[in-house]
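Quick one before lunch.
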Amino acid sequence: MDSEDGWWRLGGNRLIGKRIIHLEEATSTNDVAKELARRGAEEGLVVIAETQSRGRGRLGSAWASPRGGIWLSVLLRPKVAPINAACITIAAAVSVAEAVEEVLGVKPQVKWPNDLLIDGRKFCGILAESSIRGERLDFVVLGIGVNANVKLEELPEELRDSATTLYSALGRPIPRRRLLDAILRRLELHYSALLQGRFPEVLERWKALDITIGRRVVAEGPGGRMAGKVLDVDGDGSLIVQVDGGSVVRLRAGEVHILEM
Ligand code: BT5
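Model of the biotinyl-5-AMP complex:
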């Protein structure tokens, strides 16, 4: 497997990853990064753990984090107001997808709002958590989990139908250092596009990878469950759904299940 010593040590001039903290084990790298953020850590800090004992997905779900994966969190302190966690999630998904294509030569798909898939199965999830102070966005911790050098058998049994790993999908060891480097470089590029008001360009890249637009889905949002057809993802990262026999709704958060692949 990937025994590259110090695979997380990246050189070069970079904002994201200028400082990298590597831990053998963390509860959740998002929690470690949040704690450091509260103590004043600088934008661009990256926390990486070899395993997580309490890796999290959205709404308190568990994220399986065996050794060999890339489990990381990035601290961002966006200074301009209209950046929201949904746009950062989209930028992160595009960054990982492009990095996987660049380093491994396979093109992943993205599924709104935070999944990356190969052959319809999830190998990466993203969890952006914002901290608001008063009216202001204080910081965002962007968590990225990639099943890199993990064998499918190392994931919990109940995930093995819906999930995959890069190692098992490609049948070869994954160079984690090169992948990490590519992810962080692309993230820096797309994050600075967001800061400069160029989210539409990032969204265009998302749309080139998206497998939800135009599909019939069951969508679950804060307002409940509905069947319909996805029309688009709009300029603030919301999903636009034409509900069967009804109106057009915008989902800011939620989950979609594709009915016909
Ligand atoms: C996510 O949530 O996909 C966000 C995952 C973020 C993980 C990273 S790792 C570094 C950082 N530190 C953390 O604690 N978290 C972040 P969501 O869309 O809610 O999906 C969660 C669901 O994905 C679970 O309920 C499972 O069904 C499934 N799942 C859990 N572990 C998985 C894995 N390793 N691979 C694929 N699917 C998984």
